Amino acid sequence: MRLSTIPMFLLSLLVAAGCGDKPKKKTVASSSLATETPGPEAASEPAPLDVGTSEAPAASLQDVLYFAFDSSDLDAEGRDRLQKNADWMKEDGDRVLTIEGHTDEAGTTDYNLALGERRARITRDYLVRLGVDAARVQIITYGEERPAGSEDSLNRRSVFVATRK
Questions:
Q1: Alpha-carbon gap, residue 145 to 9, rounded angstroms
Q2: Residue 121 in domain
Q3: Is 9 part of a structural domain of the chain?
């Protein structure tokens, strides 16, 4: 009887060892495919952009773009939102944008980080095709690590965070 508890104990240790922390995020430089995890120097990020003014702007920032399950394809609504964001970016050359790529929880951590990156990248590339300077747009992927809610469709998204230079 004692011999049967040893394999169970070893199996428990293996399972516990495999339950370590997942990587929280992966930063992707906008001009290359290299990725890095931000260090302490990330605290010197630009201040958030104050988008509230007394004048109504001709265009406004669309803060989120949703995707279909396991997809990074832009639909007609997504392209329309990106056109509005491109117009908004062109109104003020000091605006910079970080695009966050997010996923639902289906799939592995690595797969979701890659899918979040594809979503952010396709979003950035479309803005660049619409005339936004690529140097003003960076991307980051969070995969499944920052859910917007319990409904999966709300988690399949790109989020736009605006700042000033």
A1: 31
A2: yes
A3: no
Of 125, 144, 119, which Cα lies nearest the Cα of 23? 144
For residues 9 and 57, what is the distance between their CA atoms, to the nearest angstrom? 64
Nearest to 42 by CA among 158, 121, 138, 112: 138
Bridge-based pairing of strands 137-143 and 95-102 is: parallel
CB 59, CB 91: distance < 8 Å? yes
Question: Looking at residue 89, which CATH number applies to its domain?
Answer: 3.30.1330.60
Contact 79, 126 (CB under 8 A): yes
Taking only the tens place, the pLDDT of each residue in 53-85 is 434 445 678 899 999 999 999 999 999 999 999
0.85 cut: is pTM over it?
A: no
